[in-house]
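Q: Here's a chain of 267 amino acids. Please give me its 3D structure as tokens.
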Amino acid sequence: MSDLGAGPLNRWRIARGRVDLTRAAPEPRIVETAAEPASLRLDLNRTAILVIDMQNDFCAPGGWMDRRGVDLAAVQAPMAPLKKLLPALRRAGVPVIWLNWGIRPDLLSLPPNLLYAGGRKGASLGYGARNGAGKGRFLVRGSWGAEIVAALAPSPRDIRVEKSRFSGFWHSELDAILRNLGVTTLLFAGVNLDRCVLATLQDASFLGYDCVLVEDCAATSSPAFCTEATRFLVRELYGFILRSGDLIAGLGRSRARARRKPPRSGT
């Protein structure tokens, strides 16, 4: 018997001319956490975290946002809580998916409206323009600016997905990867909260995913009212909001319960 399929919960089993189309249905691994507007029970087998645009061009000195005069303090704020949350999620077997801008060098995947939005403060600072500091071109796949910021130290087991829109679901592999993983619940983190994070979260909601914003792991350089409006919309229309400390505490309780749970008979 052999398995066919990249995802642990989306596989066929093939043996001696017979194909078994049934999917694995592992026992749920439950974590409970405080959240708004209601507390949550999550199945870790069906959960992944999307970390959006925590890359050099947004968060590092000398990157695109820094060169455009953006105060990096706001977009760097998620780093400290993410340094605690991501290792806890990895230990719990939750996939960590980095969703970063990584545009084509020839810009052929970018329409004029997006190029206009990215270049309003001068064509010299638009999508794909040269950094001018020996760091390649802004947001181009394979460049320094498209790399995950070093402070967050991604694991080799993490998954990387490139995007070329505010929403990570457009023209990307994201939805196919999530479905192969059997994911139904998405945790959202990263920058900018009111732009790429919100756009990706909205599309995830439209596609039927459960959406949970980790509020202290998501930030924006926009005015404060943009953060408040985004949080209101998430609570009101699209899903739930929690804090990383509450989720980490829930993961700890889940591990403690698993240690106390007696083994199944016959094992």
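Q: Can you summarize the key feature?
A: The first strand starts at residue 2 and ends at 7.
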